[in-house]
Amino acid sequence: MTIEEIVHGESKNVEFKVTLPKDSEKYTKTIVAFANTQGGKLIFGVDDKTRKVTGIDEDELFKMMDSISNAISDSCNPQIVPNIEPQTADGKTIIVVTVIPGANRPYYLKSKGKNTGTFIRVAGTSRPAYPEKIKELEMEGARIYWDELTCVGYEVTEDAVEKLCCDIKKFRNEMGLPERDVTVTQLMNWKLLKKENDSLLASNAFVLMTSDYFPFSKTQCAVFKGTDRTVFLDKREFSGPIYEQIVEATDFVLRNIRLGLTIDGLVRKESYELPLEAIREMIINAHCHRNLTDDSCVQVAVYDDRLEVTSPGGLYNGLTFEELMNGHSKIRNRAIAGVFNKMGFAESWGTGVKRIIGAAKSCGLPTPKFQVFDDMFRVDLFRSTFSIEDQKSNEEASEKNQESIGEESEKHRRRIKKASEKNQESIGEESEKHRRRIKKTSEDHPNNSRDNLNSTQKQILELLSQDTRLSAKKIAGAIGISSRNIESNIKKLKRRGILIRHGSPKNGYWEITDRTEVLKRDSDAAANIFLDM
């Protein structure tokens, strides 16, 4: 323990004691709390108020270390084996007791019993665990996942099974994942259903994915005036299958944030002030990693300065905040996380936090804020500073830009008309060649219309129709899904002959050959061909 660390004072993972208390419970409860949460260090020989290193007398050092070891062994259940060692700080000797997160939870003081002797760390103090937390600690210690437990008495209907299978397949298709049928057998393999005596039993995860059976399974959404929870401007509450709640909550946020307009040449582009990928990731993570033994709901709040998403339950099973920020993850709800992964909603690599931060950075937004409490986890995605004066200024600039574009467009049309009159015969020949090329493409790729495309593929074509030089990465950012999914859908569009790549990967562009779109432009074919020459 360095003097620099001591200067920072006590925290969730650090506690000071000037000397060894006569009542061992005053420090053994801290040992228990460390074992039940993210671990920590108990330091003897430092004043907790002044942070001054008082040190331990050398004559008492090893006697004190033995007393600490014996007290922990005699008082705590299950057994806790900390690392106890002397260290030097500011030229004086201190005792550092290091406790790692325990695997056999819950840990408690024998003298008080499990119900009153189980402690957890909250900020810089050790507090008795509430009943819901003790229940979760018990499941952690037994390696039991609440969402995989059987929901006793819940009836599994054919309609519910069929709808869930169809919806999983639909989401996979929209996310650009490989097509696959989803069956009852797969739902059983994913721990959503169990078979017993020729009957299907529902896990809690299946119930959450198909109904509003659990009263806590809701997403509360609200818009507040200002930057605190004083005045409601709008509020909604969504229930039902949790994947539907995620979609509805995301739409709620998009309806209540600004949709901006930028002009790139002759192209008008619209984009939300907050990245869609980050919004979806925040809401998905809130449901995927929430504590399902807590009766609270997921909350999504829009303020003037930020989007705030709160999930019931702190960090799970000893995961530290530092580990979380470095991309580590521990799954609290294994069945739900698995199904979300199959649907393309979430990955299993702990990338959620980094994806939120990366999406905010790519949009020029402040770094998101992550807050951990003993019973909840909160993420703040900050909105860009945008005043009414900024809005008026942008609108005026947009109007001037539109006037300039209008003048240039008129000049451009006159040039086209003049060139068209001089080259009508040549254009006619090129038009005929162009129609023959379109016909051949249609014959080679009979299924290249947009009738059978998924929503992601349609969005790709819409974006490329506005800017033919967009990269897969930029398309992914605009739609709010991974680059891998975009590349997969682009390959499918190329195989069907709807997309053709011209030029190098860096400097080339895309051509959309959808015959139905070309036929709509037959009346302007000559002008279009001239522009392509």
From TrEMBL:
Q: Where is the composition biased (Basic and acidic residues)?
A: 390-402
Residues of the region (Disordered) are 390-455
Give one Pfam hit by family name.
Answer: HTH_24
Question: What GO MF annotations does this protein's record show?
Answer: sequence-specific DNA binding
Q: Which InterPro entries match?
A: ArsR-like_HTH, AsnC-type_HTH_dom, RecG_C_sf, Schlafen_AlbA_2_dom, Schlafen_AlbA_2_dom_sf, WH-like_DNA-bd_sf, WH_DNA-bd_sf
Q: Which residues form the Schlafen AlbA-2 domain?
A: 10-129
Q: What is this protein called?
A: Winged helix-turn-helix transcriptional regulator
Source organism: Schaedlerella arabinosiphila
